[in-house]
Design a protein that fits this description.
Layout lengths: L2 E7 L6 H9 L6 E7 L6 H6 L7 E4 L5 H11 L4 E4 L4 E3 L4 H8 L7 E9 L5 E5 L21 E3 H7 L10 H12 L4 E12 L8 H16 L6 H10 L7
Parallel strand pairs: 1-2, 1-4, 2-3, 6-9
Antiparallel strand pairs: 4-8, 5-9, 6-7, 6-8
Helix pairs in contact: 6-7, 7-8
Length: about 240
């Protein structure tokens, strides 16, 4: 079994090296590592080039945002399983990909996800996202898995498509809705913190961005058979409150 890991970056000189080292330090050794850069103007490319002998594919060119970059990586992926580790993220330990591979030894597993910690630049945990085991219909009540822990078989991208850019910052949410909720795939919950994410995502940088994110969330819900989008749009942010405790 081969796992393709995609790291997307743009002007990420402060964090990209930690992310790369996190992938290269994994004990699981059948990894295709793809790095897609959006044409950085800082030292990101210089840092990536330090590892050019260990990165399987490196592309640096302008793109239309993070999900366009992910789609480029997916198109280049040759692994049986595909996941992402963004430039602000790193694995919680060096056994994560080994445990991902173990989860996919069951031929019925289509998708795997786990838990995530949001951390401050100092390393202090800010929020704890504990996903819990998926139950059919859970998306109707605002549930979703943390996208940085989302791994799936390549065939799903081939059959169901990749990220849809017209959903803006909710493109990851829409894809998970489409794959898990609408198409009723078989999902495996890896009960551990898989990824640490440095806080400061694109959908939360301003009030305007947050409003746009909610609008895109609602669009995703309506187009993926959520039965009461108005209720779901209320429950979805409320679930985040528990992550602070």
């Amino acid at each position: 079994m081969k796992i393709s890991v995609i790291t997307v970056a743009f002007n990420a000189e402060k964090t990209i090296e930690h992310s790369i080292a996190s992938v290269l330090g994994q004990k699981f050794n059948n990894v295709q590592y793809i790095v897609i850069d959006g044409g950085s103007t800082d030292d990101t490319i210089k840092i990536i080039n330090k590892y050019k002998d260990k990165v399987d594919i490196f592309v640096s060119e302008p793109d239309r945002g993070i999900y366009d970059a992910m789609n480029k990586g997916i198109a280049l992926a040759t692994g049986d399983i595909i996941g992402t580790l963004n430039a602000d993220d790193f694995y919680s330990d060096d056994h994560v990909l080994s445990e991902v591979a173990a989860g996919f030894t069951d031929p019925h597993t289509d998708i795997l996800y786990g838990d995530l910690d949001y951390i401050e630049p100092s390393g202090k945990i800010n929020r704890k996202w504990r996903s819990g085991k998926y139950k059919s219909g859970a998306f109707n009540w605002g549930w979703m898995p943390p996208h940085p822990t989302f791994y799936c078989r390549k065939k799903l991208f081939d059959e169901l498509g990749a990220y849809k850019l017209d959903y803006g910052s909710a493109a990851d949410y829409e894809l998970m809705l489409r794959f898990i909720h609408s198409n009723k795939t078989n999902v495996y919950y890896l009960n551990k913190v898989m990824v640490k994410m440095v806080i400061g995502g694109i959908s939360n940088k301003s009030f305007g961005n947050r409003v746009n994110a909610l609008r895109f969330d609602l669009k995703a819900m309506r187009n993926n058979n959520i039965f009461l989008p108005g209720v779901t749009i209320l429950f979805k942010p409320l679930r985040k409150i528990a992550q602070f405790f």
